[in-house]
Amino acid sequence: MxxxxxxxxxxxxxxxxxxxxxxxxxxxxxxxDLLERSARYAGAFAALGVKPGDxxxxxxxxxxxxxxxxxxAVRAGAVFLPLNTAYTPAEIDYFLGDAEPAVFVCDPAHRxxxxxxxxxxxxxxxxxxxxxGRGTLAQAADAASPHGVDVPRGPDDLAALLYTSGTTGxxxxxxxxxxNLASNAQALVEEWRFTPDDVLIHALPIFHTHGLFVAINxxxxxxxSMLFLPRFxxxxxxxxxxxxxxxxxxxxxxxxxxxxxxLTATACAGMRLFVSGSAPLLAETHxxxxxxxxxxxxxxxxxxxxxxxxxxxxxxERVPGTVGFPLPGVSVRVTDPDTGRELIxxxxxxxxxxxxxxxxxxxxxPEKTAAEFRDGWFVTGDLGVMDLAGRVQIVGRGKDLVITGxxxxxxxxxxxxxxxxxxxxxxxxIGLPHADFGxxxxxxxxxxxxxxxEEAAVLAALEGxxxxxxxxxxxxxxxxxxxxxxxxxxxxxxxxxxxxLYRA
Length: 504
Ligand code: AMP
Hints:
Oligomer: single chain
Bound molecules: adenosine monophosphate
Strand order of the largest sheet: 2-1-10-9-11-12-13-14-15
Largest sheet: 9 strands, mixed
């Protein structure tokens, strides 16, 4: 049997002498280096006692060596488990206890704090890897053979375990198979017209599905290359655009790049594609980007559990505020959240997904897994609407839905009205405990610099535009909205900060 995912990656390499990645220090790595280095990591893991199906957990800074370690884990038949660099030792304790990895790799600077945590959880081996790609894991790879044989893995064997960034409750480990990753990367290569000549600017973190699977697996399957940045830096990205063809980013990338004085159509002339995802891209940002660069951002939608679900078309209209059509092989339906009955086009409901992209379930949580599937469809928790042509628009998270006096208010609808007001940069609409209404619709607004916005004027501007029950009871102003590493607005933090607003 072959190694399903890595065989697909190998098949993408038409010429090993071609480039694979260039790092910020100017170091260049060929496709041959990728094959050799990942083989060494596979050998290192095997020598450390990692057996097929064992988890290999890493909490390390972004580096190309970490990418090779990911590929080495896949080739060793292991299950790759990347952890957000922001997690504290208490959080790491939970992940190590839950996933029981055979090996844990951390930054050398955190080894003293994390080694006892790993030991208490029975993790046999703790190694290190730093931002420069140095550490005991890299040394183990140096010492291993570059000619190892890949461990056979089938389409349904696990390749990765990614914990969801869930804002409430315990984090759940999404089990992703070789074919979940391979099929989705292949669909995106075709949908986004990737070729070996593409050069991707990689500035996303690599502990998340976007930077790790969308960006890296698509580059690999296409035999393309990347300019690999340690983190998001708008000036560095702008400087690289002349040498690149594609940028993948979260919406914050685009709002920050728009503030760069050098962002012009000329600066972007060599680029063919700008992709946005992981959080909603404001329609206004989409329009500003087109005005500044002449390019329409291609927005796509996905999640850890499902990989990518929909994409705006490569050819055809990329409609601001929508996430496009289901990818080839992926089915999407919109259902009544309570009954599960499929709704007609144009009705708002729960987005459900089926296809080779959908994960194998939550690690060691069969009940949670069962609860999130309905007749074989995965219930995303996102509320959306599909038009007759199949184009999807996201209206909000199910858990963000505000229920006020028995009426449902979809925050996105109110946010869209608020965002269109002069002097509003962006907004978040939340429900706060309210004695009369259960929840009070509350608007939190980020005003533009120098704009003088007042609560009464904002409320007056909305009147007549939205049904009365949807109108915010209060409007609050903040300098910025709290966001996580992937640019998602953390509404739970807003709800906590303003929880007492309607308490007399
Ligand atoms: P994660 O598992 O961290 O990737 O988060 C997945 C969630 O991000 C989805 O369920 C959506 O709520 C949100 N998301 C991803 N892409 C988009 C998008 N283009 N527009 C709106 N929300 C998105």
